[in-house]
Amino acid sequence: MTIIDGKEVAAALRKEIAAEVGEMVAAGQRPPCLVAILVGDDGASQTYVGNKEKMSAEVGFSSRVLRMPAETTEEELLREVEKLNADPEVDGYIVQMPLPRHIDEQRVIEAIDPRKDVDGFHPENMGRMALGLPAFVSATPDGILSLLKYYKIPTAGKHCVVIGRSNTVGRPVANLLSQKGWDCTVTICHSRTANLPEVVRQGDIVIAAIGKAEFVTGDMIKPGAVVIDVGITRVPSAETKSGWRLLGDVRFDEVAPKSSYITPVPGGVGPMTVVSLMKNTLKARKGL
Ligand code: NAP
């Protein structure tokens, strides 16, 4: 059994991106520019945006964060989106989710110029991705694919069972793995799936994106399966200083001995997501 090291893969990809940006700058071109809009003061969102800013600097991008108060109106936010759409110096930008409840997230996503939508949430990018056309693929599905590629895990003809059908993780990763080049036979499970353990047991590759701590137990896994755990749930813990720890959707102690490859939580899929955003920003700079 191999524990997939997301930090190692992310570091390798970061190095590749930094090298390409270095060449760009040495050739007299401007580096890619990424902007993040952060509305309100949600602690987790501030951490995520901080990480994105830090990694942008590490790979040589120029970046900035546009901080807006929680009371920002939808119209005010849309005006900033329009400004970024029109700014030729900005290659890509993200609007950090979740937005305050009085703002319609979908309306904001659809206002983003699809050519600058490095989060890959715009319906045009989702549609292009689903059709196998060049597109910005959102960070988590792209991160999962990068892990499979880095570890040279065979996918052709494999039965991949994806648990979860969200627009950000389950649905896109299932679609991508069914496409030519990946060639999996894909089953998607959700909260209405009958006999879920039986279905999951058929998976050569199991991707769990549910958000329920330790939902996937050892008895649900076929011996030798590849297990990708996307879930992150904070649970109280007496053993950590912070008073909580992170659990995945997979019961690691039971599942790991049965699997051929497995991602840990934390340190598996998580570290990949910011690097995938950097990949998209570089792609935006060069044109899709
Ligand atoms: P989501 O939008 O809440 O979707 C959860 C999916 O799981 C839904 O499709 C739901 O089915 C399904 N589900 C819930 N309970 C189920 C059950 N008992 N049996 C079968 N399916 C069930 O969540 P998400 O955004 O995809 O995120 C999933 C998890 O991944 C969360 O823990 C999130 O924090 C984590 N995440 C991690 C990263 C990372 O960087 N590692 C990135 C993104 C998300 P229905 O559609 O039928 O309701």
Number of DSSP E strands: 11
- Radius of gyration, Cα only, in angstroms? 19 Å
**Residue ranges: pLDDT <50 for 5 or more in a row?**
none
Number of domains: 2
What is the CATH class of the largest domain?
Alpha Beta
Indicate the structural class.
alpha/beta
Give the averaged pLDDT, no decimals. 97
Number of alpha- plus pi-helical segments: 10
Would you mind describing this structure in some detail?
With 288 residues, this protein is of the alpha/beta class. It has 2 domains: 29-113, Rossmann fold (3-Layer(aba) Sandwich), CATH 3.40.50.10860; 139-270, Rossmann fold. It is 40% helix and 17% strand. The chain has 10 helices and 11 strands. It has helices at residues 6-26, 43-59, 74-86, 105-111, 123-131, 139-150, 170-178, 196-200, 252-255, 270-286, and strands at residues 2-3, 33-39, 62-68, 92-95, 159-163, 185-189, 205-208, 226-229, 233-236, 244-247, 261-262. The strands form 3 sheets. It has a 6-stranded parallel sheet with strand order 1-11-8-7-5-6. A 3-stranded parallel sheet has the order 3-2-4, with helices on one face. Strands 9-10 form a two-stranded antiparallel sheet. Helix 6 packs across helix 7 (170-178) and helix 6 (139-150) crosses helix 10. NADP nicotinamide-adenine-dinucleotide phosphate is lined by residues 140, 163-166, 168-170, 189-193, 196, 209-212, 230-233, 269-270, 273.
Question: What keyword list fits this structure?
Answer:
288 residues; alpha/beta; Rossmann fold; 2 domains; 11 strands; 17% strand; binds NADP nicotinamide-adenine-dinucleotide phosphate
